[in-house]
Amino acid sequence: MKVCVGLSGGVDSSVAALLLKRAGHDVFALFMQNWHDTTGTLHGDCEWEEDRFVAEMVARKIGIPFYFVDLSEEYRQRVVDYMFDEYSKGRTPNPDVLCNREIKFDAFLRCAMRLGADYVATGHYCRKDEIQGPDGKPVYRIFAGSDHNKDQSYFLCQLTQEQLSKALFPIGDIDKPQVRRLAHKADLPSADKKDSQGICFVGKVDLPTFLQQKLHPEEGDIVEVYDAYFQDNPQYRMIHDTLLSLRRDGQTGDIRMITDYISETRPMTGNDYASTQSPFSSEKIAALPDDELLMLSQPMKYEISFKTETYRSGKKHVKKTRYADNPFGKIVGRHDGAQFYTIGQRRGLNIGGHAESLFVIATDIDRNIIYVGEGHAHKGLSRSCLRVAPEDVHWIREDIPMRVGEIRRYRVRIRYRQPLQGAFLIMRENGLYVLFDVPQRGITPGQFAVWYEGEEMLGSGVISC
Fold first, then answer.
1. Residue 207 DSSP SS3
2. What 3-state DSSP class applies to 239?
3. pTM value?
4. Strand partners, 382
5. 3-class DSSP assignment, residue 124
6. Which candidate in 111, 126, 157, 200 is catalytic?
7. What pLDDT digit, counting tens, does each position of 452-462 carry?
8. Which of 34, 193, 388, 438 allows an S-S link to 201, with CB 3.0 to 4.6 Å?
9. Is 129 part of any domain?
10. Strand partners, 333
11. What are the tens digits of pLDDT across the range 366-397?
């Protein structure tokens, strides 16, 4: 079996190549360059050249042929241009997911096939197997990596059956410390190389600077939203009352509207894959009209206006203008463009004078306003329901798609490293809805919701709202 390893210069792909070589396969390495521009990058010029140098030394050490391919034009068109377009609309894309779907397992895979490869292998921490479908044809399944703390299945959530049929993940059943030990024992040049960070194949970037290549900065207001805004807000009350109406019989007390903050930097364990019982009734969910379900999935809208007033200042009583106090919010700062910010962001706001951190809770691209709230428990930071447009629903398991009107229980995550969350998936004509058992922090349009059964990843979708 001839296998092409996508050798990046990192320790994971290096050990993947080592294991395949030891298993007796005909292995060759292919290094891809996907980016030239260093605008906004934080690690200096020509980082890819160092990666290529290390990758070539690894290939020489293992004793496998080394090739190079420049896919930068495909990467710009299919990943970076998509990024710019999404940010311009106030959405937050995931370039790593796009890179795997559009580059590693498409453009790169086709290049590997032209060089004679039967399969393409990567250093992803995930597992794959094959079963027979009801029609007798093979069905390829993808599972979380055995090392739950390094599981990278989320980034492969848009792969197809055809792509999976050609994919190998040699390190999916071992953990990161063992990968490092194998690299040291084989004296691989990448054994101590740090894991890559930032945008796939671009590196760690100053995002506003990077985006300003195509998106122009424009100053606007940062508005802090106070808790009083939610007290009599019709939309917030509708969401609360709808969730309350969906509760299982026998449940008492009020419905939860605010998430318990969960750190996504803590080590993950197998317990993150345990099942939970939902507070909601599937029968009541099934009876909910489409328009009410759509309203339940909508993010909060903020309409806070500020009136000006004049006052006298100083010994000479100079007349000045200021904003009058508003019980619902306050203009607390300025920003360089709402499109440069994302839901849940707390860095880069540069606003002091608060006991807890401020988080972005909404952006208004049309009016160029950022709305922020103080603390993890701010009401605007939590939501219980999201929607995926029909055209954005993707099933890895093409043999088990959901039919309109069907409801299923799965475990879902809305970003990498988030512990899996219990949820109902609800298929309707106007999209797929995900109703979580507990509110979620920072549901972000443009990101991917990914659903699992046990440790198997079944499908994903772009969060539309």
1. helix
2. helix
3. 0.92
4. 441
5. coil
6. 200
7. 999 999 999 99
8. 34
9. yes
10. 222
11. 999 999 999 999 999 999 999 999 999 999 99
